[in-house]
Amino acid sequence: MAAAAAAAVGGPQPPQPELPAAGLALDKAATAAHLKAALSRPDNRAGAEELQALLERVLSAERPLAVAADGEEAAAGGGGPGAAEEEALEWCKCLLAGGGGYEEFCAAVRAYDPAALCGLVWTANFVAYRCRTCGISPCMSLCAECFHQGDHTGHDFNMFRSQAGGACDCGDSNVMRESGFCRRHQIKSSSNIPCVPKDLLMMSEFVLPRFIFCLIQYLREGYNEPAADVPSEKDLSKVLQLLEPQISFLEDLTKMGGAMRSVLTQVLTNQQNYKDLTSGLGENTCAKKSHEKYLIALKSSGLTYPEDKLVYGIQEPSAGTSTLAVQGFAGATGTLGQLDSSDEEDQDGSQGLGKRKRVKLSSSTKDQSIMDVLKHKSFLEELLFWTIKYEFPQKMVTFLLNMLPDQEYKVAFTKTFVQHYAFIMKTLKKSHESDTMSNRIVHISVQLFSNEELARQVTEECQLLDIMVTVLLYMMESCLIKSELQDEENSLHVVVNCGEALLKNNTYWPLVSDFINILSHQSVAKKFLEDHGLLVTWMNFVSFFQGMNLNKRELNEHVEFESQTYYAAFAAELEACAQPMWGLLSHCKVRETQEYTRNVVRYCLEALQDWFDAINFVDEPAPNQVTFHLPLHRYYAMFLSKAVKCQELDLDSVLPDQEMLMKLMIHPLQIQASLAEIHSNMWVRNGLQIKGQAMTYVQSHFCNSMIDPDIYLLQVCASRLDPDYFISSVFERFKVVDLLTMASQHQNTVLDAEHERSMLEGALTFLVILLSLRLHLGMSDDEILRAEMVAQLCMNDRTHSSLLDLIPENPNPKSGIIPGSYSFESVLSAVADFKAPVFEPGGSMQQGMYTPKAEVWDQEFDPVMVILRTVYRRDVQSAMDRYTAFLKQNGKFPGNPWPPYKKRTPLHPSYKGLMRLLHCKTLHIVLFTLLYKILMDHQNLSEHVLCMVLYLIELGLENSADEESDEEASVCGPERCHDSWFPGSNLVANMRHFINYVRVRVPETAPEVKRDSPASTSSDSLGSLQNSGTAQVFSLVAERRKKFQEIINRSSNEANQVVRPKTSSKWSAPGSAPQLTTAILEIKESILSLLIKLHHKLSGKQNSYYPPWLDDIEILIQPEIPKYSHGDGITAVERILLKAALQSRMNKRIIEEICRKVTPPVPPRKVTAAEKKTLDKEERRQKARERQQKLLAEFASRQKSFMETAMDVDSPENDIPMEITTAEPQVSEAVYDCVICGQSGPSSEDRPTGLVVLLQASSVLGQCRDNTEPKKLPITEEEQIYPWDTCAAVHDVRLSLLQRYFKDSSCLLAVSIGWEGGVYVQTCGHTLHIDCHKSYMESLRNDQVLQGFSVDKGEFTCPLCRQFANSVLPCYPGSNMENNLWQRPSNKSLQDLIKEVEELQGRPGAFPVSISSETNLSKEMESVMKDIKNTTQKKYRDYSKTPGSPDNDFLFMYSVARTNLELELIHRGGNLCSGGASTAGKRSCLNQLFHVLALHMRLYSIDSEFNPWGKLTQLEEMNSQLGNEEQQPEVPILYHDVTSLLLIQILMMPQPLRKDHFTCIVKVLFALLYTQALVALSVKCNEEDRSAWKHTGALKKNTCDAEKSYKVLLSFVISELSKGKLYHEEGAQECAMVSPIAWSSESMEKYLQDFCLPFLRITSLLQHHLFGEDLPSCQEEEEFSVLSSCLGLLPTFYQTEHPFISASCLDWPVPAFDIIAQWCSEINSFTERHAEQGKALLIQESRWKLPHLLQLPENYNTIFQYYHRKTCSVCTKVPKDPAVCLVCGTFVCLKGLCCKQQSYCECVLHSQNCGAGTGIFLLVNASVIIIIRGHRFCLWGSVYLDAHGEEDRDLRRGKPLYICKERYKVLEQQWISHTFDHINKRWGPHYNGL
Questions:
Q1: I want to staple 899 with a disulfide (CB 3.0 to 4.6 A). Which of 863, 992, 1334, 1607 is the partner?
Q2: 8 Å CB contact between 232 and 212
């Protein structure tokens, strides 16, 4: 078929006769059907020609191209630029469908989709999954749908946001295991898919080639060579916009499934089609023009079309030097025709580099063709070419990737991609958008190269490796500079310049990551390792990084500009050198691969030799410079290590000669010395960045590619070189040679005195690490992992994720140690205990931590490993502190322990030579000298130095060579003693060797000079061997020079004998300075004697050391030396002496001998006056410091005790109750302390005191529901949350119902508001003078460094406890004596009291303080009232129909009291049973608040005619009811809210209130409440029950206590209300209202009690605050009776034996039946007209449950999957930052501009509407909770934790998260208790932008 199509299209056609105009108008569908019929005939020639002509016309490329080219005149072209394309697309769709409908056609094709792959392509920011358990390739990824359809329970998977885009691998068994396929892709196999009918896709095969050609023509036409000055992005994106519909059309075709894809593959790869259509022959001018444009584009890209090859002659004159450089730069210059300055510089640069040895590639022609030749043979190839030219437009990339499930296409496309690789690199380097482009490139390449089979095929057929390496080399060659390392003038080495954009912006990473990707395939890596040419080229590439980013130490002034290029350098070495190295290493694991290692090592050494030659290196590194980048050294080291560890290679067979080893060790050693210098602050003038480098070098992601190989290489060199030479090199590099003298003073020519100590410590520490580290010298992988983990855990407790991050893992993902793999978890559980997060309310949010097990501290803590791995020096200290604490706690060691000594893993036999370092005279001399200096208290020595010295001695004893056989003989061979200090090189023997005299060079001023010369010989028998004539002088440097000469002379190479001895004065031997003189010191010590004296010195006692074996000879026979020892210096010395005695009898004898001589005390040095002065100074300083410490400690303890007593902000539950007023009766007034001025005194009218309070609006009460079923967060479309059943909604409905039928002013007294937006007042309990507060606020206003709160809004923090506050509540100047008088119970009757209450209420201004006169107090009270009003929004204050009516203020004020009481009840758990009564601690300001409110309520005196008090206590004359029919009636008293009435009555009374008045009011109101309960009960039950009760009650009506029997009262209520229409016309509704319960007398009693309880609770709380009485505690079932007796409703003599009856609390003010009749008549008159509403108003829901946040699902994924794709209801786009309100479940856009209203973003708006300014939102994409409080916000943390108890903010790790119930509880607790402001510390303003 394809051939037929080709024939039809092919060849120049005779011009077709024009179709008549009518033909155009012909219906498209008909034409299509006609053509399809014509084509399906056997002889389809005519049909083909007809179709050809039609397509020519429809797809003619002329129009749009003219448009694109002319840019501005685009619009001029007739129907706008888009019309023609639209038309063409319509035609194509019709033709493809062959006359049918396009939709049906698509469906038909989809039915034949055999694809078993998912292949879904996504772009950046898409959320995908990766499962390491199922993945074969590390890059495997799955779309969410396939992931959830598969079974991955228990797998190691994570969710991630794609950075570059990707494609789903489900169904591809090359990339993942089949067990992980999802349900859709497991089943499909091509067998059951029917064959595609021939005619279905026939038209596609004819139409598509033309369509794609048309697309290519567009691309050719649209591409204009950018002019030199104008960037061309604009034009390109214009062309792409025009082409959008076409490319989308192709993309839709690919989505039709396999059948259509294979047709497209045919079209794209068919070479004949391409040739015929694009060759540009034939008479079609348009085609010619486009072909010319194509050739121009090729040329300008520096690419040739094979025919023009001769232009770029390959006969280069110097065929020997590769044409790489010349050709490359020639190519670069011509590129894209831009000769801008940077290109010209490149050219000059290239000439300069000509001298360098260029690498020879296997053949110059091959190389050149890689870089410069492109020939396109198919549509696919040219499409890719344009895709690259246009810098990878997203649409094109997606189309090309969508085709990948077609296997044939995949291979063709991969080859095409490889063919264009060099061109991609060139385009990438030029691109202005290199980041985006990099991502798009990787998006493609990762799909191609992750497949091993495909990678192998392309490697074999297309030289993939050659291409990649060459392209990388080319890329780096463009940014080389001359290296300044070592010999600046004559260096021939070039390195990359880290400041160039190429490195700084990481532009190279797409290419490097492809390279790493293909090296992870074994078959490809083997080809690489076998190909010598490639290895040479690669080493050449690596050498570009060798010595980059050179640091030179600034000696004079601080560097002006701190360059940050070091980031680029470290990243480049890690990505471009180390990761490919790890990739290669992972294939060198077995013996069979020895050959590969030999190859790498060989070329690596050659490259190193070239490098040493190029930088002109002889034997001394240049001073004061360091580079951290030695990738060649590291390649060499890592392959050596692998060879010995895994391949059983003989180490010596791959090691070079001694001279090369000496050179190899210099630079890594230089780095170690520089690290010590940097930490000693010697590089401080180079700025912070040098510290940054030192830290990065050892940081966990870099250490195993940098410091570890360096130290290993040094260990190898040390094991093979002369130990004396190595040791002296170390001390010379660390610049402490001059310090190692016996003299007490010395001159150091290369180091300042202040750095000496830390450099000496550095040198010794380095030696200890060098000798104890076994990472590459014999530890197994599991041991390494364990050691790393222990080191990290010892520094600090760690979370699981930070541990994973800190354990250096092989950077190459296929290396076997996968993070999170089995071994990691098993090692972790072996060494650490999991500490689950603890939750103290208000404590910081902790995460799950791992902490070392006790036995790890006991046996495995390894300071050496800790020092090696610490980025910050403080971590070493932290580890030691934790170790000390452990020993103290477990009673193992009381004092300050030293770092423990630990036995090491045995050395691998190949490295045995390393231990010779411990047995060389040079080291022994150093140790002896240091011990002597420490003993003599010379300056600049520290305990740390001693610790290291002892550690080295102990290491030497542990690793002593062989037991001395003839130890006796070795003493008496005097001839061996002439050459040096010690007779032999064995430490065991040298320890006992006495040294008598030492000749030292000292400055003239040294005290040693003045001494007399010693006697000619000493009488000591052992010392007599050395007389004064042979006193030793020793110079490390001289020794080293001597050794170096020897080695060089030994080496056979003649040329090397011309060694330039360097005699710069800087490096001269210490003897050359003129002012030095020689003195001879008498020493007469051996190492053993020094140790014993040290023991005395450390313990501070003479003769403290006594050899333990003298008492217990067993110790020597069966020594129990533990592998691991705790203790300090004293124990270390004892351990060493014991080991020394164990190893030789001679030592044992000498130790005993020394101990027998009672050692004279160490002679005190004469102290000069100057020294005395400094000592005194020191002592004084020390004392001052101690004093200061003591003061601070005392202060801290005081502060702590104050904190404990005075404030406990963080835990709202268990506070100490702090009564504001003192309760002793003898004090006349309450006394307050002002926390600002510190004075105490009463609050007076002139100088009032106030409580620090925080006022906030709250809607928590409104969230109470009457339903126990918890509300869940909606996670499907069906679940929605409706706020009908919340307390706020119910109260709203009630108020509006009342307002519909009754008089407004009376409605506003019948209810309370404040369920939403009520004002809550809380205090920290501290008081201050109000004038002090004002000045405090002034000072805050002037102080600009404020954080977190706004002074202009009146916010401040309490001056004492720093709790957040925003107002001051004045304390009412009252005396306690009065209080006590008021509380005396009086014996007046209820009737008298009622009269008194009425009178008091009527008297205006009956306040002790006259309100008329403006006092300071009254002003303050007014201003605080203003604050209270302004706290909440207007809509939460104004409910009256006439705005601003006084009734409204009245309602608002008593509602504030109500809100605070109700909230306090909620904080107590909703009732006053045992728990609720005892949490009295919450410091309350209700007393003060009541005074302020009462004062203001009194200003509005209620008209006496509708003061409800009258209605409650007097019978009215009936006639007054009927008069005022015309205006709305007042609210019937039975519809009133009783609690509101209570507050109104109490606040209307003059303050302070008398107790008996209070009780009177409560009694009166209880009668009303009880009646309401009876009425509600009567409405709730059905007709039969009602009539039954009516009769039973009526019989008892005349008994004595009828008024106190609920049955009687109920029957009366029913009979009264039956007179009205309340019980009538129910009909259908009856069943809805009625509960089907049969009422028993118990259930009725319970109903009545439950109805009354809320009122009793609030009243009790009120009584508690007003009169200071304690709340009684009780059990739940007796709450009613206890509260009522506490309130004085129950007569005290009342007995509680028989079942308690609520009615017994009644105390009627007037005959019960009369007043009930009066109340019922009001209702009857209302229900005449509105029976329904009348009934609804009677049934009040009073039993609210506690408020809760929404219940969240167990697994976070359920929230994430539903919400992260949910669209915004306003703009129907998916928001960038979706969030959900946890109070009501509303979905909002964080920061979304679409939902902004009057500059308020949606979250802020919602927080005002839903929470009156408090919002709690879950950010869906980050799993964190954000709190909005007013104008501030804070990040609260997350309530979802992973399996290890950690948050995953921003879902970076993507592990499954589970709800943490405790955290959610804490969040809810803070919401309910309104303590967000106090507990969360990090608040910031949100400027309404959230």
A1: 863
A2: no
